[in-house]
Structures are given as structure tokens and as C-alpha cells.
Amino acid sequence: MNPETSLRSDLARQIKKIRRADLVVGIPCFNNEETIGHVIETVSQGLYDHYRDMKAVLLISDGGSTDDTRECAVQASVRLGQQKLVAIYRGLAGKGSALRSVFEAADLLSASACMVVDSDLRSITGEWVHHLLAPVLDHHYDFVAPIYTRYKYDGTITNNIAYNLTRALYGRRVRQPIGGDFAFSLDCARSFSSKAVWDSDIARFGIDIWMTTTALVEGYSVCQSRLGVKAHDSKDPAAHLAPMFRQVLFTLFLLMEQNEMYWKIVTGSEPTEVFGLDAEPDPPPVAINHGALCESFRNGLRQFGVLWEHLFPPEIYADIREAAASPDESMQLKITTWVQILYRLAATFHHWESHRFKLLEIATPLYNARVAAFVNETRDLTSRQAEEVVEAQAKTFEEEKPELLRLWEDRQQISRGLPDSGPL
Fold this sequence. Notes:
By secondary structure, this protein is α/β, with parallel strands linked by helices. It folds into two domains: 9-276, Alpha-Beta Complex (Spore Coat Polysaccharide Biosynthesis Protein SpsA, Chain A), CATH 3.90.550; 290-414, no CATH class. Helix content is 53%, strand content 12%. It contains 18 helices and ten strands. The chain has helices at 9-18, 36-51, 69-75, 95-109, 126-137, 156-170, 186-194, 207-217, 237-240, 242-258, 260-263, 290-311, 314-325, 335-351, 356-378, 383-399, 401-409, 411-414; strands at 23-29, 56-62, 83-88, 113-116, 143-149, 172-173, 182-185, 222-229, 270-271, 274-276. An eight-stranded mixed beta sheet has the order 3-2-1-4-7-5-8-10, with helices on both faces. The chain has a two-stranded parallel ribbon with strand order 6-9. Helix 3 links the parallel strand 2 and strand 3 (83-88). Helix 6 (156-170) packs parallel to helix 10. The protein starts with 8 loop residues before the first helix and ends in a 10-residue tail after the last helix.
């Protein structure tokens, strides 16, 4: 059972001694000794440059790092008048528990605004502090999501899943719903802290999409802020993103069940106000192993093809087989096919009560196929031009939503030919 608070007693005493702060900046970390010092010092300089007359507390919330992350955090310098707290949080291991401690600290300190940034950032500047906090402090927004300038092959889970589903389900165009760097009003932070989710998977993974979705569903005022290029410890989809794919999709689908009375009546989408940088620099390239993506997809067809044939209607399965039979450089998985795959996975997740992670495991090669197809579609495009492909895909998710609604209610259609217990 998760503890009633994520704050250890010593940290709680330190916070109470401070009594009150205007701003709280949370930096969740785990084994980030190479970058944590840079992030802390950059945030501190940004606070000094833009909010030196406001009392600021930096809370470095560590998940029990086994390297020298905490030591580096302690050694990092902050500007005069700011306070830095370095502590290990209590609760389930994960970013969600780390952020819970930040929300609780903001509550205890009655902060006017709160922001969080990832600890592996290499491109963070002091301007990020202003771009994230200003919409809360100056424009009275409750929740600020980031917009990054990213290379066309960076953020593949956002581009192909999270942005599309958030937009189609909840009717708002929030470009980076799992971005990692956010700002909140005190009311919003208190609401997040009070939710009974901290003994669930939200505390371990999925916290970013949970916060974005919760803010939208509960009617908080939401905006976005352009931060420029995000350079961090990027990951090759073929080698590193399978667990994240399953975790993000699991959380998205779980939130669909919890909020179905909301998203079922939403049609279309509305833009979300944007603050921050006006000029966007060109992002640096991100390497991607296209051949490994294609091979993973074909291995998935060999391993899970029989299950896919049962999961998806004949025309979708035919598209999958056709894609697998194509040469790597010309392989396509049409946007409409990808939308239908994700919507059927969501409905199947809804109707099956067990083996849900297994369902997402057998779907992982299909994500690799869509990423490989996206690479082929955008190979000769700039990152800005590739953004048009992402937007067209998001529009298709909106247009196909009636099919999701139909499948969501049709257990018999989803369960055709499959065991009641799921795909085992």
C-alpha cells in the first residue's frame, strides 16, 4: 500500500521551516549524474533572471539512484535567495511518485505556481523557466504543456499515438501531451496530489499523459508553450521504446475507461493557445535504425500473425501482410490502417479484463511498422514538412472516431474467435 505522503519526515520538516514560497520547481531524477547539475544550475539562473523577486524552492526528487546523482545535485549551485532540497521520495518507484512529492511540496508552501522539468535535459535554457511559468503567473492558466522543436524521427510515440488519441478523444490539440516539462497552478497541483492513483501504475509510469488528460477532463485552463529544441537522452525506437510504447498505451487505454462519459460525446478538436518562443530553430538529427524496425515487424508477423488475423478484420490484416512483404525502403502501413489498428486495440483492451499487457506486447511490432512507414513517407521532407504528415494523421483519428465508438460497445465483434481470457 502506498504511504499517505511521498515526503519523508526529514524533507517535510525542511519544507515546514521554509514556510512559504512563491515558486516550486521539481526535478524528478534517477541515475542522471551526467546531467542533473546542469539542469539545476540552468533552472536556478532562469529563476534569477526572470523571477528574482519571488521566493523559489528547487526540489530534486530522487528515485533511489545508484550512481552519484544525489551527490551531484547537492554540489550544484543555486543563486542567492533560492533554496534547494534534495531528497528520496517515498512510494512506488517511478516518475509519478517523484512528481507527487513536488505537488505536495507546492501545497505545503502555498506556491503561486509550480513547474517540473526532466533531469536528462541537455538543451534546457533559463528561458524555459519563463516560458513555462509566465502563462500561470501572468495569464492565469492552470496547466502548461510544452511544445518542442523536434527532429522528424524524434518523439515517435507522441507523433503516432499520444497526440492523436488525446486530440481525437478529448477534443483539444495538445501537441506534446507526454512532453515531460510542465507548469501548474496551485489549484491544479493540489488536485493532482489529492487523486487516489498513487498506489497504481500512474505512480510508476504514465504520469505525463495522466496529468494532461486529467487537466482536460476536469476543466482546468490548458495552454502550451514553445520551448525550442529538446535535446535529451533520445532513444532509438527499434532498440529502446518498446516498454515505453506499452506503458503509454496502457495508461491511455485505462484513462479511456475512466473517462468514457467525457470523450464519447466529443467531436472534432479545438486549438490550444500557445505562448513561448516565436522563432523555432532547426532541430539536430536523431538516428533511427530503419532496418531493425522492419525486421521487428516481420518477426512479429511470424510470431503473432495468427492472433493478428483474429484481432483485426480481413482488410486490415491484408494491409499488414502486404506491408511485411514489401522491401524496407518502400514499406507502407497506411494512416487509415494504423488508426483502425489502434482503435481496435483500445476496444479490445476495454472488453478483455485480463492479459492486457500481453495484448500490448503482441501489438508492439505494429508500432514499429508504423514508425518505419513514417520514415519512408517523410524521408525527403524537412522536419517542418513532416509535421504536416503528423497533422494529417491526427485528423484521420478524428474522422474515424465513430468506428471507435462502435467497437467500444460491441464486445461480440471484438471477441470473435478469441478465448475469453485474452490472447494467451
